[in-house]
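Question:
When you can, review this sequence-structure pair and walk me through the tokens.
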Amino acid sequence: MGEPFDDDNPAAGAVLRVTLGPDAPARLDKALAGAVPEAAALSRSRLARLIAEGAVSRDGRPETDQKAKAAPGETWDIRLEPAAEVDLRPEAIPLVVVHEDADLIVIDKPAGMVVHPAPGSPSGTLVNALMHHCGATLSGIGGERRPGIVHRIDKDTSGLVVAAKSDRAHHGLAAQFEAHSVNRHYLALVHGVPDAADPRLRGLQGVALEPGGVIRIATNLARHRTDRQRQAVCWPPEGRHAVTRARVTEAFARQAALIDCWLETGRTHQIRVHMAYAGHGLLGDPVYGGRRHLSDRTLGQAAALGNAFPRQALHAATLGFVHPVTGAELAFASALPADMAGLLAALRSGAGGGG
């Protein structure tokens, strides 16, 4: 596995040291792709380019053949060039602050806001807003006065995000996310109704049924082979381990369901990919939702609203963790935003109260 890597500000000429795990593939590019931390955002194609450029070495000796042999336990160094510059200027963007103290801040993020600046989204992000809101109270992350982002939710996902205001909080929160000890529940509206009695679902690789109607989905996830903006289900030794649990809380005429999802791991697009893999993609999801449509014969006008929903119907509803400085147990909750609440109300009405 890779050593901790600061994806918010990769230093110029930084070196990422990666130790291959016991199940590492024998081919170098594949082995590295499965071992680098997700925060490094190094796709297999980019790793191949780095290898060809002589930026990957072992014991100080560069390797330029991506098909070179690799073995479990080996340690490889990856020299990274500076990331494209983005503007980290403060911006006076309104924020819904759920909690704030000297070391951290919890925000209820609206759908449509990117968490961190990137070349495609240089401004208007949560980080820009936090820099303005926190101002001089930021004690510094890695020697710079900026917020520490330890987890992210997608641009069009709404809900709770915690950010560090100090180095000690940054390290403590990052350790909890790494240990999968953070309690995170999401509410999602999906096509169809996941049913533990469904033989197709019961026979799906990686799906297990747990007490209380809980469906556990455990696969590996990696970048899609042809569409690099997407993630895809895969199996060891490819990709990274990902576990999602889901439980139906309300059903609507067998056409749709409100589900409670919670994460054991936190991979990019994890809930969206796993629910699509289970055959129950999220309403409004333009990437993983598939071509399914709600029927107006059973849901009336709610079907048109659901079919035209402009974003994935996903909300980070609860967030719980141990305060990394005080040791206090903290728990926060966020109500559904207006768009999802309106869609939920329409589905209830269209289905005659659910069922």
About this structure: Residues 97-179 form a domain with the Pseudouridine synthase fold (CATH 3.30.2350.10). DSSP finds nine helices and 16 strands in the chain.
